[in-house]
């Protein structure tokens, strides 16, 4: 029986993960769930946002489903006890190096996008961002007097393993990868571009690969986003471009994510704990449910179930839009609609 560890977290986290669990139970009756306090809730229960007991459970799981963490009540805590510190430790403990963020404008919801509806229509991008390397982790790094520096560093094997994730993902989609770098300026990007191209030529010649410079890609994501299928990029560029793209669908409540490594995967909506609407029963659970669909696909290899969940969510977004989408449905009504569309 696949073991799923659920970390509901804080704010709307417990509300949206509850909905995602119900959907998982509906499409796969053999899953076993165990829940642990994590983030701010973890600090309140264990005095530690990511307690050793939780770490042991996570490391023994087949997949981890996370809600969201944080809230104003935790902002005064010392840094290591804050919810975000727990999240960084969780990702590190799981060794997840590939962050997958689909950005899709759902049919019928084009009017929510800040882009003109005809530009927003058909947007369906999958970001594959390297998560454990680059400028955020490179050594040496320091702030010394009136000078500070960071190091952007990648090795060929690091670029190969993330490129492989992108090429494999493209094969299940529209078969196109755009690798984004800054190869006209940075040596790291030259290595990145050559490594992605070599892997493509030797193992994925059936996938179309092109390379774009990050500045040009940033403009094209806004001016012509439907040209993209899979975007492969390093940590810093991926952080910025995936957040830039997250505004395209018109609500944070629509965006799931997966973080993959060599062991269990971590699945979470990209939104935060939304303290302004927590406990009101109005959070949009679509991002959490779509994260559960990614869990079915990437950790359990259940593509049919994943696709069924995605199409049920797509139908529910039309039949029962939540408030962030200009509708009136609450969390439970939206969930009921998804369960009904699942049949
Ligand atoms: N990975 C994470 O868990 C994560 C990510 C971002 C922020 N945070 C934390 O969350 C807390 C709140 O941060 P924030 O307000 O900047 O960002 P947020 O994503 O929580 O909320 C931003 C806005 O979007 C709305 N929103 C978010 N998710 C929604 C949903 N599912 N349905 C309907 N509306 C939704 C909120 O009501 C709010 O108005 C902070 O403590 C922050 O550090 C956590």
Nutshell version of this structure?
By secondary structure, the protein is an alpha/beta fold. It has 12 helices and 12 strands. Helices cover 41% and strands 17% of the residues.
Structure explained in plain terms:
There is one protein chain. Helices cover 41% and strands 17% of the residues. With 343 residues, the chain is of the alpha/beta class. It folds into 2 domains: 1-102 and 251-343, Isopropylmalate Dehydrogenase, CATH 3.40.718; 124-247, Isopropylmalate Dehydrogenase, CATH 3.40.718. The strands form 2 sheets. The protein has a 10-stranded mixed beta sheet with strand order 2-1-3-12-11-4-5-10-8-9, sandwiched between helices. A two-stranded antiparallel ribbon has the order 6-7. Helix 1 (13-27) packs across helix 10 (286-298), helix 6 crosses helix 7 and helix 11 (303-319) crosses helix 12 (331-342). Bound molecules: nicotinamide-adenine-dinucleotide (NAD). Residues 12, 16, 68-71, 252-253, 271-277, 283-284, 287, 324 line the site of nicotinamide-adenine-dinucleotide.
- Tell the overall outline: globular
The SS-based structural class is alpha/beta
Summed up, the helix count is 12
Q: CATH superfamily of the largest domain, called what?
A: Isopropylmalate Dehydrogenase
């Amino acid at each position: 029986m696949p073991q799923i560890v659920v970390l509901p977290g804080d704010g709307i986290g417990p509300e949206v993960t509850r909905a995602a669990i119900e959907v998982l139970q509906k499409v796969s009756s053999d899953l076993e769930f165990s829940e642990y306090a994590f983030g701010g809730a973890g600090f309140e229960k264990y005095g530690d946002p990511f307690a050793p007991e939780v770490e042991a459970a996570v490391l023994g799981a087949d997949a981890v489903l996370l809600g969201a963490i944080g809230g104003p009540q935790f902002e005064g805590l010392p840094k290591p006890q804050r919810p975000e510190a727990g999240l960084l430790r969780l990702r590190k403990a799981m060794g997840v190096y590939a962050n997958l963020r689909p950005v899709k404008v759902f049919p019928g919801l084009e009017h929510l996008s800040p882009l003109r509806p005809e530009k927003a229509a058909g947007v369906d991008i999958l970001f594959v961002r390297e998560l454990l390397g680059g400028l955020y982790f490179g050594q040496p790094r320091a702030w010394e007097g009136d000078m500070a520096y960071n190091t952007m560093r990648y090795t060929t094997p690091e670029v190969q393993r993330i490129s492989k994730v992108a090429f494999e993902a493209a094969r299940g989609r529209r078969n196109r990868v755009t690798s984004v770098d800054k190869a006209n300026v940075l040596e790291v990007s030259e290595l990145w571009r050559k490594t992605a191209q070599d892997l493509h030529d030797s193992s994925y010649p059936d996938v179309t690969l092109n390379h774009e410079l990050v500045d040009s890609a940033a403009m094209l994501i806004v001016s012509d986003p439907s040209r993209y299928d899979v975007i492969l990029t390093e940590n810093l560029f991926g952080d910025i471009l995936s957040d830039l793209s997250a505004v395209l669908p018109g609500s944070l409540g629509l965006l799931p994510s997966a973080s993959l490594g060599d062991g269990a995967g971590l699945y979470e909506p990209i939104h935060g704990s939304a303290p302004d609407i927590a406990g009101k029963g109005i959070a949009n659970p679509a991002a959490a449910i779509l994260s559960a669909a990614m869990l079915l696909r990437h950790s359990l290899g259940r593509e049919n179930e994943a696709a069924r969940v995605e199409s049920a969510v797509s139908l529910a977004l039309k039949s029962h839009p939540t408030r962030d989408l200009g509708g009136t449905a609450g969390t439970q009504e939206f969930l009921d609609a998804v369960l009904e569309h699942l049949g």
